[in-house]
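Chain A, query sequence.
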Amino acid sequence: MSDWRVRAVRASRLPFSRHVATTRSGETTPAPEHSMDPRPDQPVAPVTLERSLVDAAVYHDGRRVETPSSLADIYRELPGKPGTMAWIGLFRPAESQLLEAAERFNLHELAVEDAIVAHQRPKLERYGDTLFVVLRAARYLDDVEEVDFGEIHLFVGPDFVLTVRHSQAPDLSAVRRRLEADPDLLALGPEAVLYAVLDAVVDGYAPVIAGLQHDIDEIETEVFGGDPHVSRRIYELSREVIEFQRATRPLLEIMKSLEAGFGKYGTDDELQRYLRDVADHATYAAERVDGFRQMLQNILTVNATLVSQRQNEEMKQLAEAGHAQNDEIKKISSWAAILFAPTLIGTVYGMNFDTMPELHWAFGYPFAIGLMALVCTSLYLIFKRRDWL
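Chain A, predicted structure.
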């Protein structure tokens, strides 16, 4: 087994490489295990594509002429036939299927490793006469108000296109139907398929942008409405916008790289116009996403300011309530002190003792009453002067 095949096998052991194959009826079945026999003279048995094959076709002058069931059948149809192109669509293929495709179409080992492991950033790489393109698709889920991201890998050669999907989006069957309905466009070759897939991915961003805009509008209403849970929603939406930005921003570099190669690789003039239109839409999407991120940062700042203001208002109200309560306590304490003085005097002279000062004094009772009045009046004036009463 060659070095690059060994590296691909090792990469497939990562957690991301658990492949689930899909039949044409939509049922999922486990993908076959790849042989680990190290004997160099052991031939690699051809693997049919029935389990993960979405569709495979051979086109001549933009019209489908064959619908093969294996890579070997496709490979036999291509050599020496100008105007003939194969388009193979795989959904979560097994490692062995990608390795066979790499051998049949002479795909670069690094690109194959990326396709096996998946979870790559959007990019465009050229390996000889084959383009390797990674795209991140997105769709907005209305029921949960979240953005679901997908991934698609494209190998674009002189007479073939191999698409490898690792998620439900985008639906390339609609792209294939669109191209087959326009044979003149499909006759432009593999670059036409690349354009159609790019166009589908970028067009899929429009509903996501609309959904995010709706979410941001709702968040603005919640922020000024004082919703205490809005901070969490702002954070979660910010993460989705950042992830969306990682999908759209690299797409601009991909379009620039394609445009830079128009003259060198002889891209058809009409196809150049189509690709420039996709670039315009991608730029618009990237700018909107950048704007969303800035808006969410501003909303988060405004929300923090409003929360601080509400907290200050609450602290002010608590302080005012505490001040009012303190005044009431002062009044109660003052009157308690005033009433305590005559109680103390009355208690002393209410003792049942025969030998007490002024007990048999004729002016003892008026003196006691006067003393009570004097003490109470003095305390009242003192508390009044200190604004306790």
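The two ends are 99 Å apart (CA to CA). Residues 116 and 317 are 62 Å apart (CA to CA).
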